[in-house]
Amino acid sequence: PLYTLALIKSIGLRTEGRIDDRSFWINYVSSLSTPLAVPLVYPRMISIHDLESKELDGSIIPPSIPLSSEHLSEEGIYLLENGEDALVYVGNSVDPDVLRRLFSASSVDEIPTQFVLQQYDNPLSKKLNEVVNEIRRQRCSYLRFKLCKKGDALGMLFFSYMVEDKTPTGLSYVEFLVHIHRQIQSKMA
């Protein structure tokens, strides 16, 4: 059900999207293999502000976070990747030390909207670069980095990928499950 909901909310099937964007997305995705198309429907999101403290069971990439805004914190930095783009959401209350270690910036305003990820001489930056390089290896794609902040256009793009949230034109994941459950019950009755 989660992937069905994500597909319904995808750029290609959203009713409020521009027809050019929808046509491009459908044409592009239909020619991809399944492993490359799935992230365009349901991207992977991970927290990167706490990479040093995560225990990974033999994997370079930490566990994914559900695509819901309730799993985001204004003190956090999150990476959402769909196989083409890497959207980096920086909360309004991120520790300046974390910003300095990851981006060599003291505030989010010093980071350009589109940037090339640099590796700095600290464990957090090295760990982030290891994660990004593993994602690039898995996806066979370089990934374009875009900085997202609450309230700007890219921030809205980032939150549009939160497919488990309720939208003005769509159900939340829980509401969708209830809807499916009711349909099944009515067919069984």
SSE string, helix = H, strand = E? HHHEEEHEHEHH
CATH fold group of the domain at 41-170 = Severin
Give the class from helix and strand content and strand pairing. alpha+beta
For the sheet with most strands, the description reads:
5 strands, mixed
Radius of gyration based on Cα positions: 18 Å
User: What would CATH call the architecture of the domain at 41-170?
Assistant: 3-Layer(aba) Sandwich
CATH class of the domain at 41-170: Alpha Beta
Relevant CATH superfamily of the domain at 41-170: Severin
Number of strands: 5
Percent of sequence in beta strands:
5-15%
N-end to C-end Cα span: 21 Å
Dominant shape = globular
Would you identify the regions where 5 or more consecutive residues have pLDDT less than 50? none
Q: Mean pLDDT, as a whole number?
A: 90
Strand order of the largest sheet: 1-2-3-5-4
The DSSP helix count reads: 7
Portion of residues within helices:
40-55%
Protein name: Gelsolin-like domain-containing protein
GO molecular function: SNARE binding; zinc ion binding
Pfam families: Gelsolin
GO cellular component, one term: endoplasmic reticulum exit site
Describe this structure in words.
Residues 60-130 form the Gelsolin-like domain. GO terms for molecular function: SNARE binding; zinc ion binding. Pfam families: Gelsolin. This is Gelsolin-like domain-containing protein. One of its GO terms (biological process) is intracellular protein transport. The protein has 189 residues and is an alpha+beta fold. The protein has a domain at 41-170: Severin. Helix content is 40%, strand content 12%. The chain has seven helices and five strands; from the N terminus they run H-H-H-E-E-E-H-E-H-E-H-H. It has helices spanning 2-8, 19-30, 34-41, 96-103, 123-139, 153-160, 173-188; strands at residues 44-47, 77-81, 85-90, 114-115, 144-148. It has a five-stranded mixed sheet, covered by helices on one side. Strand 2 and strand 3 form a beta hairpin. It is globular and about 60 Å long. The mean pLDDT is 90.
